[in-house]
C-alpha cells in the first residue's frame, strides 16, 4: 500500500482505514453485515469532497454566480470524473474484489472506482483531518479544473435546453431494463424528446441517462 500512499501524498497513521477504503462490498465479510467494506467511508468522503470542492471553486472563480459554480461542482464530483482521478492515482489493481467478481468484470466498472475514490477521501479525513483531505483534493483534481475554462454543461442539460428552447417540452427518461447483482448493476435507459427516442447504457442510472442524452444529441450537434 506504500505506493498508493506515495501517489496520494498522505501517509496513514491508521493503515486499517486505507484497507477499508479499498475493500469493495463484494469482498467484505457478510457475517459482519459488510461493515468492513468501503461503503461507510464512501458516504463520508462524498460529503468531504463536496465541501472541499465548493470551497475551492469559490476561491478559484470569484466572479462566477451560483449556477455556474453548481455546474462545475457537479462535473468534478460526478462518477466519470472520480473514475478518472482514481485511474490517475493507480487504484484499479488495489481495490479488493473477489476472484469471481473480477472475472465478471466488476473491477472495470466506473462506479467501483468512483466509490473507492470517495472512500479514500473519507479515510484520509478520518486519519488526518480536513487539511489532509484538502491537500489530496487540490493535488488530484487540479487537472480537471484546469481542463474546463468554461462551466461544463452535461448532455442532459444540453438536451433540455435544446427542447425547451424550441417549445418541445421536457425530455422523458424511462428505465428499459436492469441487470446484474445489487453491487454491480447495469442499466438501459431510453430518452424520448421531440418525438424521437434514443437509448444509453451504464452502471448507474445517471450514467445511462447521460449516455441516452448523448445518443439523442449526436445527430443534432454533429
What can you tell me about this protein's structure?
With 222 residues, the protein is mainly alpha-helical. The protein is built from 10 helices and 3 strands. It has helices spanning 2-8, 15-21, 39-60, 66-76, 79-89, 99-103, 110-140, 142-147, 155-165, 205-221; strands at residues 172-179, 186-193, 196-202. It has a 3-stranded antiparallel beta sheet with strand order 1-2-3. Strand 1 and strand 2 (186-193) form a beta hairpin. Helix 5 (79-89) crosses helix 7 and helix 9 crosses helix 10. It is flat and about 60 Å long. The protein starts with a helix and ends with a helix.
Compute the CA-based radius of gyration.
19 Å
* Shape annotation: flat
Main beta sheet, described? 3 strands, antiparallel
Number of strands: 3
Helix content percent band: 55-70%
Please identify the structural class as seen in this structure: mainly alpha
Low-confidence stretches: none
Order of helices and strands: HHHHHHHHHEEEH
Beta-strand percentage range: 5-15%
How many angstroms does the end-to-end distance come to?
A: 45 Å
**In what order do the strands lie side by side in the largest sheet?**
1-2-3
Residue-averaged pLDDT: 87
Number of helices: 10
Essential attributes:
about 10% strand; about 220 residues; flat; about 60% helix; single chain; mainly alpha
List the helices and strands and how they pair.
Layout: H1 2-8, H2 15-21, H3 39-60, H4 66-76, H5 79-89, H6 99-103, H7 110-140, H8 142-147, H9 155-165, E1 172-179, E2 186-193, E3 196-202, H10 205-221
Helix pairs in contact: 2-7, 3-4, 3-7, 5-7, 9-10
Amino acid at each position: 500500500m506504500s505506493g498508493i500512499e506515495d501517489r496520494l501524498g498522505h501517509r496513514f497513521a491508521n493503515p486499517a482505514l486505507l484497507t477499508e477504503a479499498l475493500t469493495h462490498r463484494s469482498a467484505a465479510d457478510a457475517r459482519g453485515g459488510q461493515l468492513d467494506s468501503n461503503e461507510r467511508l464512501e458516504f463520508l468522503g462524498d460529503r468531504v469532497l463536496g465541501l472541499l470542492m465548493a470551497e475551492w471553486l469559490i476561491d478559484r472563480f470569484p466572479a462566477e454566480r451560483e449556477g455556474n459554480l453548481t455546474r462545475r461542482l457537479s462535473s468534478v464530483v460526478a462518477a466519470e470524473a472520480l473514475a478518472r482521478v482514481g485511474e490517475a492515482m493507480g487504484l484499479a489493481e488495489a481495490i479488493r474484489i473477489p476472484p469471481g467478481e473480477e472475472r465478471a468484470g466488476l473491477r472495470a466498472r466506473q462506479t467501483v472506482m468512483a466509490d473507492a475514490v470517495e472512500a479514500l477521501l473519507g479515510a484520509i479525513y478520518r486519519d488526518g483531518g480536513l487539511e489532509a483531505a484538502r491537500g489530496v483534493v487540490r493535488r488530484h483534481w487540479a487537472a480537471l479544473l484546469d481542463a474546463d475554462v468554461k462551466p461544463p454543461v452535461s448532455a442532459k442539460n444540453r438536451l433540455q435546453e435544446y427542447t425547451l428552447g424550441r417549445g418541445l417540452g421536457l425530455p422523458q427518461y424511462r428505465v428499459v431494463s436492469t441487470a446484474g447483482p445489487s453491487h454491480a448493476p447495469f442499466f438501459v435507459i431510453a430518452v424520448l424528446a421531440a418525438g424521437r427516442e434514443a437509448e444509453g447504457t451504464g452502471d448507474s442510472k445517471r450514467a445511462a441517462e447521460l449516455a441516452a442524452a448523448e445518443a439523442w444529441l449526436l445527430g443534432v450537434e454533429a
